[in-house]
Design goal:
156 residues; mainly alpha; Four Helix Bundle (Hemerythrin (Met), subunit A); 6 helices
Length: 156
């Protein structure tokens, strides 16, 4: 496998493809209700919904670094974490799930199109090379998938 193929496999397994490690990010969100998404264990903790938008943002950020796209073009103003829910409607929840799905597809396309000779180059503004950023965003998905699984279990 090429580096590009390995990175695509890593982000796909962490997001929506079957793998040995168990539930991936998309799998952890399967069947999550609006109420579950908005639930907070304690008042100042992040909820599932906020983790969804956070994961979408970091997919966007890494894609932007791969493509050279300007910053501040994410679908929602701000960065990293956003308070959710806003009004708490099913439509808002579905919209943010779609945002995550769309950002994954865009990231995947950017990885597939990335010049193989550039994987080992240092990414601008980061102490890591481009390959490390993509491996990192896959690990990020799995980290938050685990958090989501725990948040769901705490609601039982």
């Amino acid at each position: 496998m090429t580096t590009t193929q390995l990175l695509l496999a890593a982000i796909d397994e962490a997001y929506d493809k079957r793998s040995w490690h168990g539930t991936n990010l998309r799998g952890s969100l399967r069947g999550v209700t609006l109420e579950q998404a908005a639930y907070r264990v304690v008042s100042d903790s992040h909820n599932i919904w906020e983790l969804v938008v956070h994961a979408a943002y970091w997919k966007y950020d890494i894609r932007r670094r791969l493509t050279g796209e300007k910053a501040h073009s994410f679908a929602i103003a701000g960065s990293n974490f956003w308070t959710r829910p806003l009004e708490g409607t099913p439509g808002e929840w579905r919209r943010d799930l779609r945002l995550l799905e769309d950002e994954h597809a865009r990231l995947r396309a950017a990885v597939a199109a990335f010049a193989p000779a550039r994987w080992t180059r240092k990414a601008p503004g980061k102490p890591f090379n481009f390959e490390g950023l993509v491996r990192g965003v896959a690990a990020h998905d799995l980290y938050h998938a685990g958090q989501i699984q725990l948040l769901k279990r705490l609601q039982e």
